[in-house]
Specification:
It is a single chain. This protein has 260 residues and is α/β, with parallel strands linked by helices. It folds into two domains: 7-200, 2-enoyl-CoA Hydratase, Chain A, domain 1 (Alpha-Beta Complex), CATH 3.90.226; 204-250, Orthogonal Bundle (Lyase 2-enoyl-coa Hydratase, Chain  A, domain 2), CATH 1.10.12. Helix content is 48%, strand content 16%. The protein contains eleven helices and ten strands. The chain has helices at residues 31-46, 68-71, 76-94, 111-117, 145-153, 155-164, 170-175, 188-200, 204-217, 222-237, 240-250, and strands at 7-12, 15-20, 52-57, 61-63, 100-104, 107-109, 121-125, 129-131, 168-169, 181-183. The strands form two sheets. Strands 1-2-3-5-7-10 form a six-stranded mixed β-sheet, with helices on both faces. Strand 1 and strand 2 (15-20) form a beta hairpin. It is globular, with a radius of gyration of 19 Å. The protein starts with 6 loop residues before the first strand and ends in a 10-residue tail after the last helix.
Length: 260
């Protein structure tokens, strides 16, 4: 869509590619980028033609962080508004009813790491770098990093990364559970699209309700999470997709789910 100034938005047969496009600033997150990301994901959430979203960055960076050149002059109210905007954007992506795959092509530092963590699945280039180096700037992660990172890698490792500001490579990020897969740089987007299209072959209501159960359930205790899971399951139990999927299984066929 040409109305965006800092992102690219391309829908290709059900897969929406959103690319942050400020390569001259290593795709740093300023107010405009956050506003446009929120707008783009809002459109994607309500567009029936969008089945899966792939989020990436142009150039050699996914997102190198928040825009320090903008932040340095903020007063207290401006800084609070900026943090709230960042958190709101990350939370909206996290709550998307459609799968969001981060294709992390380069630097994912600070706000970039936080943005990646708001996605459902993270695929990384073997050249990607990850970190929360905010302590080097006299601040701390302000877009949800202190909350999402320990949920992904554990409290101890989150403490280590946030308190040291250490930058790690893609293989280490995979080893600690920050990313799911690592690919050669020139294969990353193709692999992300391949994964998106695999997900598109599955039951749409099954995918949607699985995302809901995982997202809401992991924010509470186990027993409450199981109640959430049961309700999500019941949303699929009388669906047309259930009949299609189970019938295909019994007949050793391939299910043709509705709404794909």
């Amino acid at each position: 869509m040409s109305s965006y100034k800092t992102i690219k938005y391309e829908l290709k047969e059900g897969v929406l590619f959103i690319a942050i496009n400020r390569p001259e600033a290593l795709n740093a997150l300023n107010d405009t980028v956050l506003d446009e990301l929120s707008a783009a994901f809002s459109v994607a959430a309500s567009d029936d033609d969008v089945k899966v979203v792939v989020l990436t960055g142009e150039g050699r960076s996914f997102v190198a962080g928040a825009d320090i050149a903008q932040m340095v002059g903020f007063d207290m109210p401006e800084q609070r508004a900026y943090c709230q905007k960042g958190i709101s954007t990350m939370n909206f992506i996290d709550d998307m009813p459609k799968p969001v795959i981060a294709a992390i092509n380069g630097f994912a530092l600070g706000g970039g790491c936080e943005l990646a963590m708001s996605c459902d699945i993270r695929l990384a280039s073997d050249k990607a770098k990850f970190g929360q180096p905010e302590v080097n700037l006299g601040i701390l992660p302000g877009f949800g990093g202190t909350q999402r990172l320990p949920r992904l890698v554990g409290k101890g490792m989150a403490n280590y990364l946030i308190l040291t500001g250490e930058i790690i490579g893609a293989d280490e990020a995979k080893n600690i559970g920050l990313v799911e897969k690592v690919y050669p740089a020139d294969e990353l987007l193709a692999e992300a699209e391949k994964l998106a299209r695999l997900i598109m072959t599955k039951s749409p209501i099954g995918v949607q309700q699985s995302l809901l159960a995982i997202s809401r359930g992991t924010e509470t205790d186990l027993k409450t999470g199981c109640v959430i899971e049961t309700e999500a399951f019941m949303s699929t139990a009388c669906s047309e997709d259930k009949v299609i999927g189970m019938k295909a299984f019994l007949e050793k066929g391939t299910p043709e789910f509705k709404g794909r």
